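Exercise: predict the fold of this chain.
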Amino acid sequence: MLSFIHAGDVHLGNPFKGLSRQLPEKFQKEIQEASFIAFQGLIDLAVTEKVDFVLFPGDLLNGSGVSARVQATLMSGFRQLKEAGITAIVSFGNHDYQAFDSQPRFWPENVLVFDHAVQEKVLTSRSGERVAFTGFSYADRSERRQRLADFPSRNPNVDYEIGLYHGSVGKLGDDYAAFSVDEMLAKNYDYWALGHIHQRATLHEQPTIAYSGNLQGLNRTEVGAKGVLLVQSGSHGLVERFIDLAPVRFEALTLTNVADPLAVVDALLQSNYSLPTFLTLTIDGPLQPALRQAYDEGHLLEVIQQSLPKSSNVWPIELTVQEQKTVVDALSATHDFSTAIEAVIQEGVGAKKLSDDVPLVVREYLNQPEGQVALRKSLEQLFSERRSSDED
């Protein structure tokens, strides 16, 4: 039986910046260790499950990975895999493409790294199946070349053909090795291990074309369970199963009808977060007087943070108050603002108008569903505030 782990976007060593100026020591330690603990959990899972291979389709590292701790963690993990007879297969993506020239020469021989050109590597599983792996590493951050055309059709001399591909659905010339699902299906591979998108998603079933999502959420937009896909062969082909490995969670919570900061705290404690959780908190509806005063004075979030017991597993990192809904609905009834907003979102105007100096992670955020939701809310609030100002 063939088995492997599909682990996209590990981002080992991610710095987790900008979470909170008031972050308690407990949460500081948890988040600083998160990517390393998650990576070790991946290695332990591979050894326990006795998989044949571990696939890293891009962004294994968060940058060039030159820090001593990142290098030591990789070496330790890869050696554990070697001792267990497991081969690691690595391609570099848009965040770690620079590591192509520095990292592989330090890694043990059970680690296979794809070149900038598309390559096929044929290996043998524990049970004797011949498995072809095909992939490539980014040569630069954008990778606008047509890469999928260079992938060969399924090798007729192997039992399985698996593609590793770091990219996103799009048209030729777009950033991040744009591809189409139909193009992938035309290659007749048995499984496509995708990287780049941090949200777990299956683009096609039988054969599977899937993003595993990232190993550990990196910011407040990357909510929910994070981990890897454990893939095993069966009577119906290769079947994947999600395994949660992230030691820290990012979540979002909306509260309504809360009277004061202590009521907010009680609601958070009743949510029973079992893992250390960084929370994006939304209070919906008109604010009661006690909340209104703290919000207007600009310290409502801090009051909530400092009112939580030290034993709490939840820490709110952002607070949003939604009181504009009625105004926006009224505006939409008499103005075509909603159509204009949707045009901005769907055409990607927000990301396209950014200065070249804006970090790539911001551009990626605005092109993802979470970023588009945030942009839509901001535009709605802007229209609402402008109309209120004009009426005054």
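Check your answer against the key: Residues 325-331 have pLDDT under 50 and may be disordered.
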